[in-house]
């Protein structure tokens, strides 16, 4: 019987929290042979709603769920954490400017980063979902301190990656397992670069480049626009946000980080820019790259040729992340 691992979900009573906790408890991330303790962090007013979720967890009778610990105290939540899904964040309100949003979220991710640095295991994997995810992740890493390293942190760009797979597969009438090597570069925001220029698709007559199987002008125009605005389209159609697909993206990102990426493919992950500054992206921000993961070690896929259109987008999204960092550092008085 496996020793339980400690898995933290913040904002656990929210929409994404509700969509993710049952799948984690079932084994969709860490496998069916891994026992799990769920540490569920919420703000005090949301604890009664969280209690309802916990009743449902019990009623699912998941064999691998060893324990459920609800709390409003970050120090308790992150104690001995192995994996953290940081989902709870302050929502943007009407009329709120970006620096106010960064300040509000900076406060949340400061407290959580400090608790993670002090109380989580040194091998912890921290995945930030709450928006603005890349910059919240940067703040969290900053306050976690030097006892944790770059390899402990990532922010979620997997939803955009999965949206690309889904849309290409739909246009070519194949299942998504036939589509490989899409990339999301940069920030999880409107400036993200949805790059299909290295993607391949397995069709009846062999493996082809997606550039060619679909028109390049569409892929760099209307297709990319559709992916970047998908969240808004779901809200318009459903009257509620894309919580299920966001939860699924967090599940797939953590699963590949924990268990390795599939042979012959890569995934997109926003990570602290490594020391060798791949593709000329400067250190000090959390930027999404194509990566492979082997036994928990994340490596950026190097040496891909990027056309001028993609390169211009990569620079623009880098500039936005640098500006977000400056605004967050000013709001939090970080030197
Ligand atoms: P959701 O669960 O819908 O969303 C949570 C965060 O995920 C938001 O920042 C949201 O960004 C982000 N997100 C990323 N991708 C997506 C996507 N595709 N679709 C929707 N959201 C996405 O929010 P709720 O308001 O339902 O729940 C938030 C919970 O967090 C509440 O229960 C609240 O009590 C809790 N909370 C906890 C905190 C803590 O633990 N200290 C602090 C603050 C809140 P966006 O806003 O851009 O949609």
UniProtKB/TrEMBL annotation:
GO terms for biological process: malate metabolic process. Residues 157-328 form the Lactate/malate dehydrogenase C-terminal domain. It is an enzyme of class 1 (oxidoreductase). Residues 6-147 form the Lactate/malate dehydrogenase N-terminal domain. Coiled coil: none annotated. Substrate binds at residues 92, 98, 131, 163. Belongs to the LDH/MDH superfamily. MDH type 2 family. This is malate dehydrogenase. It comes from Hypotrichomonas acosta. The lineage of its organism: Eukaryota, Metamonada, Parabasalia, Hypotrichomonadida, Hypotrichomonadidae.
């Amino acid at each position: 019987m496996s020793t339980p691992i400690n898995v933290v979900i913040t904002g656990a009573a929210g929409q994404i929290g509700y969509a993710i906790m049952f799948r984690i408890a079932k084994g969709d991330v860490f496998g069916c042979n891994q026992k799990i303790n769920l540490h569920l962090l919420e703000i005090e007013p949301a604890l009664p709603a969280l209690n309802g979720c916990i009743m449902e967890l019990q009623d699912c009778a998941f064999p691998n769920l060893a324990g459920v610990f609800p709390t409003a105290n970050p120090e308790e939540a992150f104690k001995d954490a192995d994996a953290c899904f940081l989902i709870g964040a302050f929502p943007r309100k009407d009329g709120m400017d970006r620096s106010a949003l960064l300040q509000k979220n900076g406060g949340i991710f400061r407290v959580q980063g400090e608790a993670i640095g002090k109380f989580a295991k040194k091998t912890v994997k921290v995945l930030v979902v709450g928006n603005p995810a890349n910059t919240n992740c940067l703040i969290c890493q900053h306050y976690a301190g030097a006892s944790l390293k770059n390899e402990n942190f990532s922010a979620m760009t997997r939803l955009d990656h999965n949206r690309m797979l889904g849309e290409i597969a739909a246009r070519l009438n194949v299942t998504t397992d036939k589509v490989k090597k899409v990339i999301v570069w940069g920030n999880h925001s409107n400036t993200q670069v949805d790059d299909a220029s290295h993607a391949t698709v397995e069709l009846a007559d062999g493996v082809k480049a997606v550039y060619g199987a679909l028109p390049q002008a569409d892929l760099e125009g209307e297709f990319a626009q559709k992916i970047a605005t998908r969240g808004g389209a779901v809200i318009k159609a459903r009257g509620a946000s894309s919580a299920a697909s966001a939860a699924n993206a967090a599940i797939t990102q953590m699963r590949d980080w924990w268990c390795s990426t599939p042979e012959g493919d890569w995934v997109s992950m926003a990570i602290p820019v490594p020391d060798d500054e791949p593709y000329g992206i400067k250190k000090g921000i959390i930027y999404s790259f194509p990566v492979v993961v082997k036994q928990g070690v994340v490596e950026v896929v190097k040496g891909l040729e990027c056309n001028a259109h993609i390169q211009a987008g990569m620079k623009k999204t880098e500039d936005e992340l640098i500006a977000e960092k400056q605004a967050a550092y000013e709001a939090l008085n970080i030197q």
